[in-house]
Amino acid sequence: MKDLTTKYLGLNLKNPIVVGSCSLTSSLSEIKKLEKNGAAAVVLKSIFEEEILMDAESQLREAKENSFIYDKYSETLDYIDFHVKEERLNDYIQLIKQAKKEVLIPIIASINCVSSAEWTSFAKRIEEAGADALELNVSLNPTDLEIRDFEQTIKIIIQKVLAQVKIPVSVKINNSFTHMARTILDLSQTGIAGLVLFNRAYAPDIDINTFEAVQGRSFSSPESYTETMRWIALLSDKVKCSLAASSGIHSSEAIIKQILAGADAVQVVSALYEHSTEHINVLLDGIEKWMEEKGFSSLEQFKGKASSKNLSNPAVFERIQFMKHFSGIN
Ligand SMILES: Cc1cc2nc3c(=O)[nH]c(=O)nc-3n(C[C@H](O)[C@H](O)[C@H](O)COP(=O)(O)O)c2cc1C
Description:
By secondary structure, this protein is α/β, with parallel strands linked by helices.
């Protein structure tokens, strides 16, 4: 039996496999299944800022159309608005409370946020419900021309949330920033406990028969772990918070590589949809087998062994352009 324990967001995890936010973590029965199959922690399905607000707005619109509300009763509007939001949040709070009662692994709540508006007060309620940590999926849309400074907007969101809670807060970001290294380093110094690299963007496609835009591949491909690995290897010994690798982690090898690059944990989602939750056991067995072959008894012995500081050829991670010297291809 190998020692796979690791520390992530200040939480002691029995192994590095965290199930990322998705529908598999949206009910107590699924969370129990994930725990039974070896997950070290789960990030709950996000409560969406947009969803909460839109839901409230659509019910308000309906109420208005049905003439239930007249201007003179404008307080009714406030009541419905409040009530709808309360109901959605209450379901989420109940899930956290039940999960904390019935499973032993850490429960990380998740908010999918697009602004620093009123949802930041939800963070307090999530903490009071007993969540071990809170992950913010900051989904600022790069096509939004109104936002001038994405980094600054994320920092304001972080500030507002950190002012509300004492539990560890992590931030999951997209991999599309003008100056990725600077952004990651700056965000790691804001007081957050961890960064999750990266969220996966929704992939559109075009149907060549109907000429319509359609939904592309929902799940990541097993090759896509390299982008995350590059940034973890380059920055793991420089950041001021823990790091979780996310996107394209389908195999034990991919997990081992992320730990070698310096990740404290990994988040797995697509692989569990494609292979079932039992795949976590397969991943854990693969890590233990590799450790046995290499003579490692604990994760700590190889964490960061291939981070840029420890590599003889870190330029491989720094290069962006193909060059014959590095790729061997003309
Ligand atoms: C079906 C599905 C639902 C997801 N729902 C959420 C969500 O609610 N909140 C969130 O932050 N990420 C969500 N994600 C993104 C995942 O948490 C993860 O960051 C992404 O899929 C990359 O990991 P993977 O390559 O292991 O799939 C979802 C992904 C999938 C495939």
